[in-house]
Amino acid sequence: NQVGRFISYGALGWLLGAGIAAIVKEYHALFIISSVVAFLAFLASFFLRESAETHIKVPLFPASLIMADWRVYLALFLRQFGGNAIWSIWPLYQASIGATRTWIALVEITNMVGQIIFMRLIEKFDPGRMFKIGLFVSAAVFTAYGFIDRYWQLIPAQAVLSFAYSAMFAGALAYLLRRHKEYGTTSGLMNSFNALSGAAGPFMGGALSQVWGYSTLMFVSASITMAGFFTAMGLKKQSPKRPEAGF
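Now predict its structure.
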């Protein structure tokens, strides 16, 4: 199982991006660099070859797959909803406690380095348990954000968060892929719920931080993430028989 190793390359990309941001600093230059790198990725996609494995017919709306693992998708959504609410104001929050642009980039680097390491280790353990641990630790870190008042304190918090995110995301994906043969649909559903949280979370992040401040937002996000943890408590360690992908 190389799920964690595959996901870690995404963290490596974020790491290189944060490193370049710390070096370049000038906004327009960073936008140009990002555009060039994205175009290179587009060119590289032409060298991808589709697997010769038999195609599986999946309905437009795979309701049975969603219902089979609704606890995973809902818990993932709640954690990412709370997380994206925080990330929407993350640079502003760091600046409010004294962080410079260079320090903000270093904080991101800490998170990404941790993910590169932890993603490759998480896959060795039971994915359902790792998923739940990731949710619980994420809630703890979000709570800690509410008490942090010095920018340098974010470094150890981000190191812990890198483990929490790795356990949560890699655990969820490995858990789902072991249960279903519809790999593309399953991973696509995860990304869909992740994207949905990315669309909804910033609204809460902006509104709460504007009215009640950053600390209140951190505590609310932690509570939402804990709701995700309790949702995932019903996951079984032993994966049952894979359901079909019918409507």
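The mean pLDDT is 86.
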